[in-house]
Amino acid sequence: MKKEYSVVGTRIAGLDEKDKVLGNVVFADDFTLPGMLHGKVFRSTKASARIKRLDVSKAQAFPGVVCVLTAGDVPNNESVKNVVGQTTEVGLLEAKHQVLARERVRYWGEAIALIVAESLDIARDALKLIEVEYEELPAVFDPLEAMKPDAPKIHGNNNVIASWKLRKGEVEKGFAQADVVVENTYRTPRQEHAHIEPESGVAWVDDMGVINVRYAAQVIEHYRDIATVLGVPESRVRVIGTLIGGGFGGKEDVTVEVFLALMTWKTGRPVKLTFTREEMGYGRHKRHPYVLKYKTGATKEGKLVALEAQIVSDAGAYVYLSPWVLIYSTVHSTGPYLIPNVKVDANSVLTNNIMTSAFRGFGGMQVVVAYEAQMDDLAEKLGMDPLELRRKNYLKKGDVTASYQEITSEVWLEKCARAALDALGEKSKGGKTKKVGRGLACAWQSYGRMTYLHDTSNCWVNLEMDGSAVVRTGIPDLGGGQRESVRAIAAEVLGLNVEEIHVISTDSQVTPLSGTVTATRALYMSGNATKLAAENVKKIITDKAAEILSVAPEKLDLKDHTVYVVDDPKKRIPLVDAIKQCYFEGKIPQSLATFRAPFTEPISSDVIKDPVFPDFTFGAQAAEVEVDIETGEVKVLKWATAYDIGQAINVNRVEGQLEGGVAQGLGFGLMEDYLEVDGVPWTWNLHDYIIPTSKDVPDIKSIVLESGSGKGPFGAKGIGEPAISAAGPAAANAVKDAIGIRVTHLPITAERIFFALRQRGGG
Amino acid sequence: MGDFRFFRPTALEELLDFKAKEGSKARILDGGSNVLVYIKEGTIPGGTLVDVKFLEAIKGIEVREGRVEIGAGELIADIMESPVIKKEIPFLRDVLQKFANPLVRNMATLAGNIADSSPIGDTIPPLLVLEAQLVLASAKGQRVIPLEEFFTGPGKNVLEPEEVILKVQFPVPVQGSGGHIKLGLRKGTSCSVASVAVWIVAEKNSVEDIRIALGGVAPTPIRARKTESSFKAQSLDWDRISALSETVAEEISPITDVRGSAEYRRQVSVSLLAKAVRQALGMEE
Amino acid sequence: MDDLNLYDICITVNDREIKARVKAETSLLDFLRENNFMEVKRGCDKGDCGACTVIKDGRAILSCITLALQADGSKVYTVKSLGTWDKMHPLQQAFVDYEALQCGFCTPGMLMSAKVLLDANPKPTREEIREAISGNLCRCTGYQKIVDAIEAVARGEYR
Questions:
Q1: In this complex, which of A276, A661, A695 lies closest to C134 when CB atoms are compared?
Q2: B residues 182-241 near C, CB within 8 Å?
Q3: Which ipTM was obtained for this model?
């Protein structure tokens, strides 16, 4: 029997939404301080070169320029961690990230110098006065080429900076049992986050000598990295995270904050830095393009017997989070299916392309392209319905995956797949030149960070004397309503309305650190932390009320500003009376609580044979498309997305994640490709890098299923990343159904379809 | 930043005198939509920006002497709403509906799109098949030239430094119907990969006259005259249209760029032409 | 014309006259943000994203590729002209109720396009709604609830 809640599980709007529609929110670039200076970044226009000569003197002398900073001005330019911003070592020690390029640039757009000036116009003009001479060095742009022993080396002496494997059973024996085998090589695009708000922030040194950085941050813990780079104590750096205008992982790695801190620290004045849209293109990391070679075997009854895969990701010029992204890919590579024999080899390889790192899906997304295409192609060879084949192989609760992790929550894939397919309704009719096709894709995606990172989240809740509450949480909000979820949870536990909960968040020195808004961990971690803290506060109240009412505390609950006996509601006291008594006796109704994710040991070898994630979310998407066989154009007609999210905290917000995931995912599948040709960016702005508009996304049916089996608050599972990964594959399978040809190179553009049809002799 | 000045003439003579003095250093802002982008990209280093919004001489959408005359300053959104256009040439309205998005249509003009002279200017192929002319004016006088003779290369045209576009005009079509197919990379605002416009006069699907224009497949938008001749006097059905359309591949010289390969443009232009002809003839897809 | 190529202009923004001295190439967006109308956002500065959409002389336009001088003497409205905390415009209330926003960055521009649509066409189809907002990019919502919210207002849910 599904539990009914007062706030949780409803569509009650939050408070932040009102500020947003009124235009009241002060986003990062909306903030100004008196005497504020403006920063600009000078960037490389070579993909691989030695800096022979760098002359900033003319820029420095330009009227209105306050200073120009280069690598020599940065106290710890090659920061001690490989990947600035992470608390644990990642990847090879030789691949050092540099704040500003010192001698060598490794990608087109790499930062070389910073200009700080009285106005943005002056800073822009001064950029043109910096003189640089390059000596071009050998470069490599194809990760498969970069793996070869004689390829130019980006760092150190090995371009392969991460390798992970899956080994289960024996694939040769497995394939020997197979009646059908499907082999394909898939390519996925370099995707740009394209959030509408550019990276931006303002930094200043306050009257206590603390360096403040107010910026659009998915990770306020970057204050530690700022401190490391500047060589100052961590307690002297404060990050204030703004409401973010879209992140998707684009504001997760270091973007403006280290530059800002440097500029304010050197000048002693407030400084603003906002990336241009072009700079977001060539100056900031992207999603890893992948090459995936998959060989899958099944029996004629439709049982999967073997999977062999080689996966290569393009890590770009710096390591960033590539090794972690690869772990996600490796663990998720089988798809949500039980396969007895698995051999997967995954490598992440440096190139002179733009660095690649976090993006919604984080490696779990690229593999869906491969495994869901394989399933449809196998079904076709077997003459079996695509859902029927999947149904015979879905993981179940209790199964152990090929990475030796037990599934401990419900797997409602079949329910999701059926719901999504049913929601498409009657199939649209095509025409002489328009072929209609439908596709299904199922996926799994972890939520919560990798467990060997020992993730924790803190939250501080207190009740005011008038019965309103304050929640203090470090969690950043990138638009998914992270703050509103925390508010709703506190309201539910304390029996209050959402208007009575004030949430103060995202300040590294004022709010308890709740961790990052990444890895679909925010609801799971900060939601659980808030629930814990609120329950502790509730216990303080009910313990006190129990004394006053002479009943056992377990018999009491909070609702509508009263503390009442559940079996005898007339027996109650006003909440404020219990609060007053608590304060009077020095038992303050507040709690600072820490929620701990499961802690495991680090992965012990490159063969992943340990649990890595707290849990997974399972779901399915179904798409109907129309392909114009004369031009190759795809029109998306219908879409349905169905996920088991455990328990919705707010139904509107869950649907919002599902629908946003569809749009961003179908962009990945059909139109988005951040192109670099020989390392030179071609699609660096929103004119040439195209994302779906309102005319490219159809009406979407969102189906929210609730098994209640998640590890998050009230049995919730995370949805941020799971929502996206099945979308592109659903479109790909729909195109295959429409034209009978499998296009394996994403995005599936009109041109690719056109030539695939011509090659077959169709169209 | 650049060295820019601003000028807002209130009468045509003022504008023409200014252009006579400043030449191409005076840039007319159509809606401003292109010019300001170029300034930000750094391709226009300086000059005078000229706002013509008060000039009556470049306003007006009317029919005169059997011609539809559209003032250079008329916004695309207004052209679409004009009762004259709805009555005389609804084809143009359908074409403009596909232009960019509503925000840009509130700012851009036909003259601006033409003066920009991009090979993929979306308004141009349809105007070419309507056999449009441009009325150009300078302090020395006016001249009328066929739109087809206006373009000389990507972004280049025959406009003299002291000249401005005054009007876009074309004969009110007495017979025939138009077809227009735009191939973009997404359904929303998209630069064209290629586009085809046709105007066809046919009696029971037998071609009396046909005009074909393409964009995005040559250094300028072009008329495909050889293909036009091969269509003339032909009796058209689905297969005949497809066969006749093949010749257009030889009349174009597409390039490879960020939006598509030359080979795709070459081959798909054949399909686009066939579609445009079928659309003009009202054939079911 | 003044020296140093600066021009005095006056634009009525949200019914308030704002006087300023601008360069020829100053965009309307620059003017608005420099005069503290921070609710008008800069997403790309090239007219590709629609975040800077305002209503000028009754039309929804892109302020980043409009010169401030082109708006001299005009009436310009931003999202703050729609409503206040105590009295929101039906579109604003619908956006909140239908969760037609997530990060909220595209929202000010989106609401401007929506308002102009409903002023001209009080009962648009869903397709017409999608067309009207096709110049406003949103990366968070997938547009579904934005269309739902605008349709709800058109349907009379907020009379």
A1: A695
A2: 188-189
A3: 0.97
